[in-house]
């Protein structure tokens, strides 16, 4: 048996557990209903069809269910598709758990938390430090489990914390190269910039946008959180405005959703670090799927470019 | 003596009081210092030069001073310019006051406040009503004296309240035509949409941008104010999010500074009412300066268009 | 039996009359021909398939035919689709008429005409009044039956007149708020601005673009109509140019098809009224299809935004 | 004495006749009035100043006057400027005429008219031929004297006819290379495309925009002319629509003022011919002013490019 | 038997040779594999399906194979589709050759070469002439067989040479009209501008992009070729830079892939000639497929416009 | 005496040596010629006027001359301007040298060269290493003295090498964080990406664009250099193409002058490193000129933003 759905090929037979990520019912051209699934494990996803599905099937096989599936890997519109021969819900006795079928950051939560704590500990400006610590503590559990985005980059459990920690490492190095940077402001910006996603998205495992997320968005939501933290901690002063500005401006341009572009040196750097780490994450995941001498799929948020993996080595 | 600087022409002699709106020192090509002023009364403004100015002149004639000026109206680069023969600070015995030399809304503050209060009184949803009333009360004095903008439209004392009241009348009529609109939400949006300018701008009479105004901007500042009002009034619920969305989205597009475009029907209407009233204000002021058969100056925020005043009547 | 196709759901059985809006023949993957229909009544539309269709079927069931259909409502690509069990052309004895199956404005033609006539009657400038009356009279029948557009807004029988009358009400209110506006010019602009669509579109019930409509467009076509009306009525003067400008500029921007942007105050207002009424019509129709707490489908001509219907009331 | 103002250099003394193209009065920093002129002859233009000008000077030296000037060629902001020592109006006995001081096309009017007549004569489709001949005859005098534009390209007397004839030659060659083109339609498009400028501009010698030109523009004005010509000649049919489309679409894009892009093959070609000939005219005039190995000034309507004149020959 | 696949209609029976342009395997909804082909002859292309295909079929029927096919012309998604009844590889004894099934320029290679040689022969500047001749000679075979593009225009065997020769004819005429143009530079630009495609594309018959083509592109590749030719011929001087500039700038704008816009007069003309000839080729091919009074399909690289074929003649 | 022109204020008397960066002659409104200078030392620049200049003055005081100047610092259009009382060319006996009056990188050439050599030494891929070493050696002298740009960032002597070394440090750190990056390719890209400027610009001290620089640009010029180096070293393979791609794509977008966007992971990173280091250099230099609580001047190449220097410390 192969390890993980990502390693199966057209023509292979499959017989293992998978998690139902999405499920929908349609009617075939012969008038019979069928179910379309997106099934996943930690290695990847596959489309699947259950033909001539009954009403019971529809009720049994819904989003979030863990199922035992056997079938054959075919192809539809140039993508692999699993034709299901048999399918059943998982049993307690199967000893499998949904959390084992969800992609996670390659680093443990404890380690991620430790790195964030270290960065806060290094801060010297007490106002910046207290606001940052307060907000991290308040949202700690969600912060350690949420993805950084619904799709595109770091879109896995603990993805947000993974992104933050990766950016902190970048920030640390850049501060060494450009010592004129204010470390406290930059570290705080890195840690807080996307925390608004904890209100923008509904949950960590299969996140969707909340009403608040759609109508307000994570950037203004986080700005508000900083203000309320400052109120609660009775902190006043330009540090609050500067922290809010870091968050507000981190998308870099008005048309990308920042109501102000970066107007403080550290805000400019934050925008670049965010972009660089997000793009490295996307690029690495796309390049992992191809061999030397091949081009990746078009990467939508990178202007739909397809990247090349060279054939030579360094 | 003519009434108001706006009525003087090239060649006229001038001898009256004016307010110094801006003052700056330069050095002429003959090496002698001179002062450049922008002088104003309620009817308008004029550039002025005081040649061979002494250090005492520089100290005496600063922004905000009321001065008695005599001189001759000349022309420089197609614009009138006052060549100053004599100038002196106003004396208490002159019986003139700076507030008489500043442009104001054509409606009194009391009447403006009454109209806003009426609109709040008409609201039925208690959450929307309480938040709106709270914020108006909290900022009442500034709200009644601030301009709606530093330049472009309603850029005079009480301009913001004048703009709000004019928009309320528009909103009232539009609600009659489209009764499906939620009156409370639309009225509250009209009243609150630009209140953030009270923090974005420094003062009512000769406003400039605050640091907070430049780094955050009036839209996110007002969103924050709504949240804090709700906290203080212990109000929760979708009304708060909806009010915040009204404010956030009223510029209509991301590239115009709204981090979200209008996504609620009343937010879409608010954007149109705001634009229409601002444009009518700009257009009327520009058309007042030209005669039938003439084109106005290019109006910068209206895509630099020059508008035509027809020669026929209705 | 349910009232209207819009009220049927997946799984329902249908047995009633419908109008064929479009019909086309294809070949199924089993090599057999089938017919695809878009069927409608006054409440809405549904896709439908007639499998294994004969040549006689193809001839009998064409666009514009009224048919009796029985079948089952299924689903295809997330949209309802009617699987036809039996279908026959309507008979005179059925007592049904195509005009009963077409969506219409919610106001009668007579009332619409009355409102337009009233507006013309109010005009004081005889040149503007005579040109407007002449063009309305000349095109009266089509004006009262055409839609305002092929899709997007007011896309139903009498939609154009409905749009005009709604805009006239808006114009009336706006003139009261801004009395400096020239009522005659604005009313005439409202009435004439889209009359060119009577030449741009082929007919009222199932309109498509004419060659003239595609090569010239309704804006220049209407400009030409105004000139010819003026010639016929032997009217000269700036009023003719101003009326032409109102029509030419009402799309607001060159890239939206207006060869001139609005350069007269009333033309600017006309553009805003047109946009506001069109958007309210689109928004209302989209929001009618969803419940509180839901988002509409993406509205294509409103920058693809999905709008939210709040859960609270005023 | 040098031939023509274009051949004078900084430091030269000037003593000859020039035409006043523009005149305006200003006040110098010493408080004394002076007159600023733009003076021209057939070879070019020069800025000039008459210091300490009297009221009599102001009346005597107005736009359109021919004057005898002596002075010295200096420099102001990197441009030559004539410092006037003495100036007087020309006398009948001077034997000089304003028309000798205006730039003209390098081809005589008679020859231009002949070429246009030839092209009309070659047409076979009687509808296209009659409409074209009618409009040329109707506007013949203006057509032969107007410039093609106020500035940028062919901005001299007879410039429009010069541009048309040059485009006719291009059209003739292109038809030979692509014989599938409809010669009648293309020739008519070339001849008619800019005739609307005869209404858009006020006169041939020192043209400015008419009110009609500003509010409607030459493209819709010409479309109207074609319709009225067709009415008068009682011509109907697709030819009229096609001719109108040629004119409407010749700017190529909506944002360049064409309410429709080219949708007929000949309209596409017309757009390219127009652009190529206009650009060659601009390029040649700019390159004539520089030597080998130099770059021209930035050419505004060619995306502000500065062009290089190579040092080698063919 | 009809001549060429382009002349077959829905319902026709087909029994003839065709070339496999593309082949791919899929699985039908009944779980059985099938092959999808794009088959072609010199007159055009058709989609085709071979249902229930065996592994042998998959191996036998690959891209580039010539096959004998019998089947019936059906329809799928509004496009003709050939349902294959029987198919076999062509035999030597069939006397058919792949080259007879590929679309070619309507002019013979010898004639194309002759025209290019003539143009080189006319050049007077020895540096330009030698570099051009060298590069043509070096790439002669590919130059005469490559298409001008993978799709859009001149996308057939010898398309590049056909495009060059057509542009040379245009250039010749334009030089006659504007004799100030440097013929050598323009001719050389026409001949060399797209030669980089010989490295950008993999081969002449069914071209795809090379890695070098994707990572560098034909414009910089050709710039490099000119430099290397100059090195080899020991030619120095501005002519080399000018030739490189002609190639670099011929797409006209940075966003269209030219790292410099045209900055030499002949480069500007080259860009226009290239665009005009490419567009005439696209337009003619699209208009050939429709009748008078019809619109073409949307032409993607011409801003998706659909062109109209008028009903009248010249 | 103050140290350096940057430290003088309005009203100060100046008496020291300065370098003439630019010189031009004009005529004053009194008809007398004067000379305008841009004078500089290592700390900055100042505009200066020499009134009533003689022909001898014009010849003596040209660009590149070192002069002794005494005068007074005045103000013109809000900028300091030196009114020259006396001026003379420097004498050998003055013991001053032009090179002491030019801004330089804050690091010595030897140290910069060492860092570049180290990076080359670290490379493992012999093809990449040899090409990079070859090009650095070939251009070593210019590489160590040229600025990175004519203006905007690193616009001082040795600016290019300073920029490269700063980017190498960034690259080193980023490779540690993302070890999947190919170090050789990234280092080579950093070192080579702007070497084309050595041909684009005329010289190190007061650089202007060469004809080749204007017509071709540094990006294609460097691509050519890589090819020629490979030819000379007889190196073939994908490494050459990849190096060329690094250079070609480093501006990131077609509209910024890269004919290809980054399509290799290291090219994407190179673009970000280049942008980050250039922006830090611009930001630091602008922020150095203002105090806490102030905004910088608008920084043109950073979208004209004015940056804020916070008042708090970390």
List SSEs of chain A in N-to-C order.
EEEHEEHHHHHHHHHH
- The oligomeric state is homohexamer
Please tally the helical runs of chain A, counting DSSP H or I stretches of 4 or more residues: 11
Largest sheet of chain A: 5 strands, mixed, barrel
Pfam family, one (chains A, B, C, D, E, F): tRNA_anti-codon
InterPro entries (chains A, B, C, D, E, F): HD/PDEase_dom, HD_domain, NA-bd_OB-fold, NA-bd_OB_tRNA, YhaM_exoribonuc/phosphodiest
Protein name (chains A, B, C, D, E, F): 3'-5' exoribonuclease YhaM
GO molecular function, one term (chains A, B, C, D, E, F): exonuclease activity
SSE topology sketch:
6 copies of one chain form a homohexamer.
Chain A: E1 13-27, E2 33-41, E3 44-50, H1 55-60, E4 66-76, E5 79-89, H2 109-122, H3 126-138, H4 140-145, H5 159-177, H6 183-192, H7 197-200, H8 211-215, H9 218-232, H10 238-248, H11 265-287
Parallel strand pairs in A: 3-5
Antiparallel strand pairs in A: 1-2, 1-4, 2-3, 4-5
Helix pairs in contact in A: 2-5, 2-6, 3-6, 5-6, 5-11, 6-10, 6-11, 9-10
Offer a quick outline of the entry.
With 314 residues, the first copy, chain A, is an alpha+beta fold. Helices cover 40% and strands 17% of the residues of chain A.
């Amino acid at each position: 048996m192969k390890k993980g759905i990502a390693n199966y090929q057209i023509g292979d037979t499959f017989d293992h557990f998978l998690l139902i990520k999405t499920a929908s019912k349609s009617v075939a051209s012969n008038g019979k209903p069928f179910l379309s699934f997106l099934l996943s494990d930690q290695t990847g996803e596959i489309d699947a069809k259950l033909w001539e599905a009954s009403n019971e099937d529809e009720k049994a096989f819904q989003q979030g269910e863990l199922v035992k599936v056997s079938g054959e890997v075919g192809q539809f519109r140039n993508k692999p598709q699993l034709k299901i021969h048999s399918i059943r819900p998982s049993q307690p006795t199967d000893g499998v758990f949904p959390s084992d079928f969800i992609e996670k950051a390659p680093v443990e939560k404890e380690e991620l938390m430790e790195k964030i704590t270290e960065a806060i500990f290094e801060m010297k400006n007490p106002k910046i430090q207290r606001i940052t610590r307060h907000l991290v503590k308040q949202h700690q559990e969600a912060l350690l489990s949420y993805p950084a985005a619904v799709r595109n980059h770091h879109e896995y459990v603990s993805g947000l914390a993974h992104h933050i920690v990766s950016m902190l490492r970048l920030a640390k190095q850049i501060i060494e190269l450009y010592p004129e940077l204010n470390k406290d402001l930059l570290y705080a910006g890195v840690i807080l910039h996307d925390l608004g996603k904890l209100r923008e998205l509904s949950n960590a495992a299969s996140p969707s946008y909340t009403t608040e997320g759609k109508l307000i968005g994570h950037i203004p939501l986080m700005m508000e959180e900083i203000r309320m933290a400052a109120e609660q901690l009775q902190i006043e002063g330009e540090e609050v405005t500067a922290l809010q500005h870091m968050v507000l401006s981190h998308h870099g341009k008005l048309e990308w959703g920042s109501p102000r572009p970066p107007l403080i040196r550290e805000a400019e750097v934050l925008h670049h670090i965010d972009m660089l780490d997000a793009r490295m994450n996307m690029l690495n995941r796309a390049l992992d799927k191809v061999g030397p001498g091949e081009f990746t799929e078009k990467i939508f948020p990178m202007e739909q470019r397809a990247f090349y993996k060279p054939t030579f080595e360094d």
